[in-house]
Structures are given as C-alpha cells and as structure tokens.
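G., the chain you wanted modeled:
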Amino acid sequence: MTQPNTPQFNDIGATAPKAHGHFLDSMQLPSGVTRFWLIRHAIVEATARLRVYGSLDVELCSEHLALQVPYYTALGRRLPDEANWVVSPLKRAQDTAKAIFAAGYGARTLTIEPRLTEQSMGEWHNLPHEELPMKLRQTAHNFWSLSASEQPPGGESMLDVCARVGHALDEMADHHAGQDTVVVSHGGAIRAALSHALNVHPDTGLRFSIQNLSLSIIERINGVWRVVTVNELPTAPSVE
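Predicted structure as tokens:
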C-alpha cells in the first residue's frame, strides 16, 4: 500500500509531488517507478560448466538448488510483491524463478521473452573452455570469453545482444510504465541491460561482475534510464 506523502513517479509524466533530481534520499525505493529487477539464474550443473554453454539449455545444479534455499527466500523478500515476472526461454532461468516462488515468494505467472536469452555462441557451443581461445579472431575481453564485437560463426556478438536486450527493455518499459518487473535472465544479457541503461559500449558493460543469484536494478524515469544497484547478492538469515 502506498504511504501518505510518498512521492509518486511515472515514466511519462510529472511527479506529484516533484522529487528534486529524483534523488533516492531514503532507504525505501519509491513506488510508481518503471523499475526492472534483474536476476541472474542459479549455478548450472558441473559438467555444463566445463564447456561453452552460451544459449544452450542446460540444467541447474541440483545440489546447489537444495543448499541455497535460504538465499532464494532472502531474494524473494527483497523483491516487490506486486510485479510482472519475465524470464528468458531457457529452462535455467525459469527454474530459478520457480525456486524463488517455492522458497516463500509464492507462485506468479511467468512471461517468456526470447530477447532476454544469453549470447548465442553458435558453432562454438560445447567447446571445452580451454579450446575457445584458439577459435578467437580478436583479443578476448578481460572479463568475458570474447570481445564485444567478436561474432562466433552462426552466433551473435555482444553488440547484437545489447541491441536485442535494449529493444526488449524499452518495449517493456513502455508497456509497464510505473510498474515493477522482475526479470530472471543471464550474465551476458544483464550486462547488456546495464550497458543499455548507461548508454555505454558493451565492452565497458562487460566490466560488471554479475554473479549467480545476484540482483541488479535499473529504472526508466521520463524516458531516461539509470542504474540503482548492480550485483547485489542475497544474504541468508543467520542461524541462532
């Protein structure tokens, strides 16, 4: 429920009352903002992690799923109760959302958005990680498997990923103005979202660390994107 005198924002109109510079001067995020809560999926199973899996549909690690239930609970408590839920078409993202639901958040309807999937590595899918450098035609990024402009045969570059993710975010922001949207996606796609929000080249956006189960928050206010938080990790409650 909206508290009295809480500033109300929307993506297309004025604020009432107007917030000076849209500063976040309290610990509570104001309601009525076009806001996206970006979550990277949980860790995948061990054999998949040995190879380049990119946009392949790989399973989550069942052992981690069982051990990390308190983190799913904590993550669910951090998220808004009233939100649209959007996931990539890959099972690991959908299963992560369902794990959050099962850990206390409660079931919600999931909308699948193909543009929020992970970077396609094309013919380089399933390569052992140690063999990938021999395939590259450009110097790899310091914090990614390849440079942002490198396009695997039959795949896509991070420039491509940033374009499709940015288009999806702009479209969803138009359709869900003034609402919260939780997106369960992937490390590359979330870096692309941050690049789009900051209007920077994906090579710069790839410098962000996006860990499994981390939360990043972006907002669009009056047509302009901003970043609220990046790679926020859930904290499990301490055991007495």
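The longest strand covers residues 224-232.

Shout if anything looks off.
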